[in-house]
Amino acid sequence: RIGVESIVVETTIEPDTWSTKSYTLVLGDKGKGCLAEAGCLEEALASGNERRFIYFYDSKTGDVKAMPKQTTGLGFTRPLLVQCLEKVAIECPRITLKKGSGVSHVTTTDNGCEITLEDGSILAASHVVGADGKWSSVRESFPELSSQFTIETCPSYGVHMSMSYIPEELKTDGTYVIKPSSPESKFYIIASPRPESEEGMSISLVCYDEILIKYPWLAPPADLLKTGEYRRGSWEYEYSALPASLRSEGSLVDNLKKLFEEEFPMFYRAIKHDDKVFQSARINRRVTWLKMNAEEGSYSTKDGKVTLIGDSAHSMTPSLGEGANTALESAVKLVNSIKAEMERKGEVICSMKTISDAFTQYGRSRPSETRQLQESSAARSMGSKH
């Protein structure tokens, strides 16, 4: 829309079918505003479902208290949001989607950038926007970017399950928060209707490491990645995802059933008729986030040829539910930076120099806007230690 030819590189060919798709994200005013500015809101409203309330479910009595949200949220799954954005991108004549191979590494040349894909093919471009997640290959390709960050681990994680139906007593216009019967138990449940399905919901048991003294069988998988190996990771690795056709080990199923019956008795009564809900359980790795250690850091290289958005730049823990909203905001801020630079120079068609200057400006200004939110989210994921 501003005269820039773009190629979007996407690893997957078909929509994601991993079991992790069953948990949801909610876009607030920030996220919806970004979609509106990008011309995607109408498609998003048709794909997602509205979230008007947060429901607090008493695990002992089954009583529910509804807390209206200040503004209506829009519920999505990750794959559903990707499909929504792709539909709009396909209609843009200057955007080409290249699916089936992710980015291996990027180098800069006198004329721009050279992008090597995982299948060995090479693309040439004037500029690169790294939107390839927390374990970004684009970021790791440039020491001036990667050296600013460390990936921090918090003592909390999730156990994700998926239901094939929504219990009659639960509504579809909100997210349910369910605390355990024992106040000292360091876990709780978040249950959400699945936006991509007319029926069904996701259940996340949010756990803190302190519970492992009493429930050692709930221990999460070890994080095997070390500094310098981040590009080997992916969101599938992060969430210990397994194909939906596989089932949890019997001992985990039995232990989870017992825990739910003891700590969430009324909720267990509502969901126990779905034989597959506990079989779908996956224990994820501990949550991590991308910490920028440089006081005056930048999301862009000094030459302005490469910049980072989304989790590649400011990945955060899921505790505040702001990761997707902030990622969309960064994308819009980057485009607005280009527009502002074009206006300042009186350009009708965007020049390469303008893109570089805009990338530099965005890269310097954006970290101060995201850092506090990242730190607040990480603090929420620390449990009683914070």
Radius of gyration: 22 Å
- pLDDT < 50 stretches: 18-22, 241-246
The residue-averaged pLDDT reads 88
Strand content is: 25-35%
Net shape: elongated
User: SSE order in H/E notation?
Assistant: EEHHEEHEEEEEHHEEEEEHHHEEEHHHH
- Provide a count of the helices: 12
Derived from helix and strand composition plus strand pairing, the structural class reads: alpha+beta
Could you give the order of strands across the largest sheet? 2-4-3-12-13-14-11-15
Termini separation (Å)? 46 Å
Q: Give the beta-strand count.
A: 17
Helical coverage, percent range: 25-40%
Describe the largest sheet.
8 strands, mixed
Please outline what is shown here.
By secondary structure, the chain is of the alpha+beta class.
Give a verbal description of the structure.
This protein is an alpha+beta fold and about 375 residues long. Helix content is about 30%, strand content about 25%. It is built from twelve helices and 17 strands. It has helices at about 30-35, 40-45, 80-90, 135-140, 145, 235-240, 250-265, 265-270, 310-315, 325-345, 350-365, 365-380; strands at about 5-10, 25, 50-60, 65-75, 95-100, 105-110, 110-115, 120-125, 130, 150-155, 155-165, 175-180, 185-195, 200-210, 280-285, 290, 305-310. The strands form five sheets. The chain has an eight-stranded mixed sheet with strand order 2-4-3-12-13-14-11-15. It has a three-stranded antiparallel sheet with strand order 6-7-8. A two-stranded parallel ribbon has the order 1-5. Helix 10 (about 325-345) packs across helix 11. The longest helix is centred in the last third of the chain and has 23 residues, at about 325-345. The protein is elongated.
